Amino acid sequence: MFGNLKYTFRGGTHVNEHKDTAGLQTVRLPEPATVSVPLSQHIGAHAKPVVQKGDTVAVGQVIGVVENGLGCPVHASVSGTVKEILTRHNAQGIPVQNVVIENDGLHTMSKDIKPWGKPLEETTTEEIVQIVRDAGISGLGGATFPTYAKIQSAVGKATSVIINCAECEPYITANHRLLLERSYAVIQGLEVLMHALNVKEGLLAVEDNKPDAIELLQKAVADKPNIRVCVMKTKYPQGDERQIVYALYHKEVPAGKLPADVGCMIINAETAAAISRAFYRGLPLVSRIVTVAGDCVKNPQNVRAPLGASYRELIDFCGGCVKEPKKLVSGGPMMGQAQWDMDAPVTNGTSALLVFSEEYDRINTEHSPCIHCGCCVQHCPMHLLPNYLAQYAQARRYDDAAKLDVMSCVECGTCSYNCPAGVQIVQYIRVAKGALRAKK
Amino acid sequence: MDLKQQTSAAPTPALLTVSPSPHARRGMTTASVMRDVLIALIPATVWGCYVFGWRAALVVLISVVSAVLFEMLTQLILHRTVTVADCSAAVTGLLLGLNLSSAVPLYVPVVGAAFAIIVVKQLLGGIGKNIMNPALAARVFLMLAWTDGMTQYPAAYDYAFDAVASATPLMSLKSGVMPEGVGLLELFFGKTGGCIGEVSVLMLLIGGVYLLCRRVIRWHIPVAMLGTVALLTFLFPLPLADAFNATLAERLTFMTSSLCSGGLMLGAIFMATDYVTSPVTDVGRLIYGVGCGLLVVFIRYFGGYNEGVSFAILIMNALVWYLDMATKPRVYGKDRRAHKKA
Asked: Is the ipTM beyond the 0.85 threshold?
């Protein structure tokens, strides 16, 4: 029995996984006719365009730069001509400048792309940070925090680097496929990070619903004494950084602090692969793996798509819709954003595109008053009292909600998922958090 | 192009539905919870009707139907959405019916249902807002209003319904004698006088196990409540003649009969676990269960009534909010002491 003990945390819930695409090879999206690359794909400052209408661009050429503040450059994901620069709403509903590039289909690589000349041992931390920043890498798990800043903030603090391969959201199998198809890249990325932060412990944290990936990784790191594979229990939200830290080290990240403050640097598996690509091949981040799934999609699968390709292109590539779509979710079903049309472009944060029909979505339309059952309390990974938080938010008593630590909520949605009354608990909490932030 | 032909078999609306995450649900609903409670009460109801005859069935039926009708009526008058489909009124009605003697006049369940649904539930804001368990509040109201009718129980298998007040096991226990002619097995299977739904411990336990398996209730409240009663009646079998020198066998018999008699099982499994009027934290639920158990024993030993389950649960209902706040879990990443200062 003790052989089965796995790393886990208190709270959370096992969500119906729907990981049907795990067995299918990742397919590359055929070159789209045009791409619309948003000039802000991460948390932080928006980039300013450095190309003009009519310019010829090559794959990997910088088309937007951030002069001040937190941010990294944006690169062209296809080669061709800049058709226009327009403003449109991104997946989060915020207006962002987009560079629309007409694809010439030649896939001409930019001349700036060349591998980093020096071996890893002779590279300094500053140089690695610069490489990661120049490659435009931000967290590909969905939170899209610029990775160079994350590395910078962890220098001197981190004692271990953890690669987050939990992928606890239902439907998404992008990381799972990445581990199966390109595990070497993930491990190389981990080694680059371990060198940059000068740490001696590297962990690959995988949920136990990916036994094939675990076996493969264990074989791959067998001769690397500094790197271990940690098998975690499959439970949502295991992929949350705070829950990973608790599961692996039984340490809590103090409220308002970062995992680096307790010595952990956590990075998504695909981000690690992107770092390896940037370091060894000089390639900036111009594409990502997107899981296209949901009950409407004819052939659900993982697609490697250039950033800026429209959602519609990916869905059509997967055979289109077999049922009338009602909802398109960018990201996982637990934390993803519902889109009002299918024309938004793929960005760093687009880990999945889920198309749901009326039939599937019916479960989300029943609402009744809270019956105080305590399901949300039982499952809250942050150990809050979500039912009271929602009630205070409904009554606009935000200060009372603050006393119950509403700001500690990570908005994972476990409460709403479990609520028998269908109360949008997490949305009420978001409202309360927004109101409290505005007050400050 | 091939690509175009194989795509978009279904039409795409111009605008899709936007809603906040999460976009997935576990599938448990208020209605499914209430249906599970109804299913869990079937064994006890059937047994009650078997033991007390068709009149018991009539009392339960009147209680359920009038609870549902009153709910519908109040909601229509108050211009609220009619929510009888969620079965919560049916649960209240069934629990109320099971808490009555089969010999009550037939208007008693109607009055009880009206009090439970209109006064306790709807006037306090509807489902989820009531501060007391509606069925229990109605039972106490009826006991105060029709004390005689509510406390006279026909004997088991007395299909003549002459409401001859046969002494219930609880009355005997209170005066310190073991129920006469009623063995532990009779108590366990429910071949005694009492309220329709409370007599058979076995049938109530079956329902409780069903609720636990369906994850409708959790173990904390029933275990804490029954455990407290068991412990107290074992350690201090006060009503017994020579309480402090009672033998182990006497103590065990007294404890088991106390657990198996009266409304304790019905209360612990189905009434104290009512979501709306019980705490949400695990620790809070344990304290709440212990509190219910303590009060049950105190009222049975020292109170004017033979039975204390209803009063015990109603008193603890009033403390739910305080229990929740006092036992709120330590938030991840926060220090409990630092938290109190803030």
From this structure: yes
